[in-house]
Amino acid sequence: MQVTLTPIQFILTILLVIVAIASLRLLRNRLMYRLVFLAIVLVGILFVAVPYIPYYLAQQLGVGRGVDLVFYLLFTGILLMGVILYRRILEHDLIITQLIRQNAIRNAIDQKGDTSVALKDSKDA
Predict the structure, then answer these.
(1) Reported pTM
(2) From 24, 41, 50, 125, which residue has the greatest number of CB atoms within 10 Å?
(3) 31-71: per-residue pLDDT in tens?
């Protein structure tokens, strides 16, 4: 089977490779994320290079066109990513709140200690 790329397929493949390289550099400490993202990019390149594959999968799953199947998968993935990011924002809010609380308590203790020292110094004078 010979695969010939049309100009748009070539451009999309190059863009997907660029996105893969950039994301792999950003996710260098997260092996699982890198593997999942790399798999998604490879499937994207496969779908771009051989457009019959998403069409065939869509027909098997009862979706009208391959583009519709890709859109449904992307929409579901974006919703999942939104939920994950929202959860991480909530976790970060809790961490920031705890840090601010600890800092406020530490500052209150330090100020209490400083005022007592200042009062002792003023009584001695």
Answers:
(1) 0.61
(2) 41
(3) 887 888 888 889 988 888 888 999 998 998 888 888 888 88
Name the nearest CA neighbour of 16 among 70, 62, 61: 70
Name the DSSP class of 27: T
Q: Rounded to whole angstroms, how far apart are CA atoms 73 and 67?
A: 10
Contact partners, residue 57, CB within 8 Å, separation at least 6: 66, 69
Q: To the nearest whole number, what is the mean pLDDT of the chain? A: 83
**Burial environment of residue 34 by CB neighbours within 10 A (0 to 12, 13 to 18, 19 or more):** middle
Alpha-carbon distance values, 82 to 17, 79, 86, 116 (Å): 24, 5, 6, 51
For residue 70, which of 42, 50, 47 has the smallest C-alpha distance? Answer: 47
What whole-number distance in Å separates Cα of residue 9 and Cα of residue 39? 18
